[in-house]
Amino acid sequence: MRLAISKLLPTYFERSRTETSEIWGKDLVWQKGEMIKIVAPSGSGKSSLVNFLYGMRKDYEGSILYDQHQVDTTDAESMAVLRKDHLSIVFQDLRLFPNQTVQDNLELKRQLNPYHPKEKIAEMAERLGIGKKLSSLAKTCSYGEQQRVAIIRALMQPFDFLLLDEPFSHLDNRNAELAMQLMLEEAGARQASIIFADLERIEFFPFTSLYHL
Amino acid sequence: MAVSFKPIKPLLQTGTNSASRWFSYVGLGIGVLLLLCSIQMFINIQRLLKEGSIRKDGFDYISLTKSVTNETMGTPDRNQFSDKDLAELRAQPFIDGVSPLLPNDFRVTLGAGSVLAFNTDMFLETLDDEFIDTLPPTFKWQEGQTNIPLILSSDFFEIYNVFAPGQGLPQISRETAMGIPVQITCEGNGVSEVFIGKIVAFSDRVNSVLVPKNFLIWSNRKFGKGEDVKASRIFVKTKDANSTELLRFADSRKYSLNKDKTLLGRNKMVIQGIFSGLGIFGLLVVLLALMLFSFYLQLVIARSRDSLQLLLTLGYSPGWLSRKVSALFIPVYATVVIAAVLVTQLMQWSFHHLVMYNRPELSSVLHWSVLCVAFLLILLSVFTNNRLVRSLLYKLHNN
Q1: Which pTM value belongs to this model?
Q2: Is pLDDT at A105 greater than 90 in this prediction?
Q3: Chain A within 8 Å of B192 (Cβ-Cβ)?
Q4: Do β-strands A161-165 and A87-90 pair in parallel, antiparallel, or remain unpaired?
Q5: Which of B307, B314, B318 sits opposite A112 (nearest CB)?
Q6: CA nearest A108 in B: which residue?
């Protein structure tokens, strides 16, 4: 799968943004397998970009294409298929089911298109240090723990592009590195791309392209 | 592996506002019950009053005769309807059709053959098929055929059964009467011919012995005096037998109307009207209950909005999700409608056994159309729910 963006700009941004940004207003093509790092200070539209790429918002000019699928005109059912089979995401605001256990949160994603067997949930949770939290309600977990749950959830399905929106904002360096390692392994196994948007560069992400938003 | 709805079910806040939910279930039950009972009662009335049905396709059929007075006695011409009289009647706006009851113009005798020692003079008449209330497909005759189908007045038959014991004759049932062939002898112009008559139906509307029209025309030509046969009695088809214009017209011409038989038809109409009204009311209650339930569903979806939206974000198909969410309520709908069907069945059983004392025209079992309506109601409720949930979820997806 290939992702192409063309002359992309949020409708609420001034056109002058295209002069300084390496993404807004540009024509870019990313192939499956590339590691994309997007560095963006607060307010530069990082979350907007990730939401646009995931098809959650349509308030932009220009176009986003996954192969032949234009994101803003794709119907609801096709978008669901795209998200189930080709696109995965870690939201900045985590978006877990607060009244479900960690295990249920992960299973809800896994059962949709199981890439891993059920046992893999415990293994990954153990690896990221939340093995004991599987039976706790998500709302009782700390932000750091919830962030790791959101990361594992994103790895439960097959994908060609993994979108990360400040995925380590609540993690210390050690845990962030462990999580990154896991995501790199999983992306490698799928020969998938990671599009990683963050406030600053992170040493342990071996990007192939770097963009300033 | 199929996606399971089990882990998703707890995400729906169905427990909220249970009063509204229960109200809608009870409302639906009452509405369905009213509707089904009305349909069944409508059918019951149809069956009970089938024999007495005088009104057909929204028309009354009534007979008209000229009043025989001292002045007109002995002058048959003045008591019969001329072509001019018929044309005048047809021209009236409140009359939708006229058919003269043409009599035989020759001597007719009736015998029961070897079955009963019974022989009497009688008469035959004919009327346009459209004016006959009970017209079986066997009421047809062709030249050369010795069998003649007869339609006998129910009143005549009743009178026979009343006087039969006194005359040493057996009383007979309608079924038996329809099975007994009678000998009809037509005489005139020096010839005589015996036909086999068979009663094919009884009429509540026409007090006569009816034969197919082509038979009477043929026999009048063969056995009759060759004169133009005039009718002393005619039938008129009208929208309203109680119309004041019709009554005024009949009075002015000194015609007498036989309206008695329209009363049953009118009563039936009124009763059916009441049950139609009840049925419509039931349907309205069903619609109200469905609306109330749709509010409850909207509330459930609004309260579960975050969870449903997150499921869609994670890649759950809105079509699949709406099918599953609406399917949650199918067992409830089915239970409510089936309960209403069972109560209707119980009521029909009680009506048949306890109120109608097992009358043979009725059945203790519900009519198939009631079951069909019940099934359609389940389909209707499932369909409306599915549509509602679907549109709400697609709206969520696009937000």
Answers
A1: 0.65
A2: yes
A3: no
A4: parallel
A5: B314
A6: B7
Pairwise CA distance, residues B328 & B330, whole Å: 6
- The single-letter code of the amino acid at B193 is E
* Helix (H), strand (E) at residue B198: strand B191-203
> Nearest residue of B to residue A103 by CA position?
B7
Digit-coded pLDDT (tens) for B206-235 = 888 999 999 999 999 888 887 777 888 898
- Say which DSSP state B283 is in: H
CB contacts of A114 in chain B (<8 Å) are 1
Cross-chain CB nearest to A107 (options B1, B7, B11) = B7
Residues 34-73 of A with CB under 8 A from B: 54, 56
pLDDT tens digit sequence for A147-194: 999 999 999 999 999 999 999 999 999 999 999 999 999 999 999 999
Pairing of strands B147-153, B191-203: parallel
Cβ distance A76 to B397 less than 8 Å, yes or no, reads: yes
The three-point CA angle B367-B368-B373 to 5° equals 105
B397 at A interface, C-beta within 8 A: yes
Note the pLDDT of residue B365: 92
Question: Using a CB-CB distance cutoff of 8 angstroms, which residues of chain A are in contact with residue B397?
Answer: 76, 79
**Residue whose token pair is 């015996």:** B194
pLDDT in tens, A121-147: 999 999 999 999 999 999 999 999 999
Lookup result for tokens 């025309």: B217
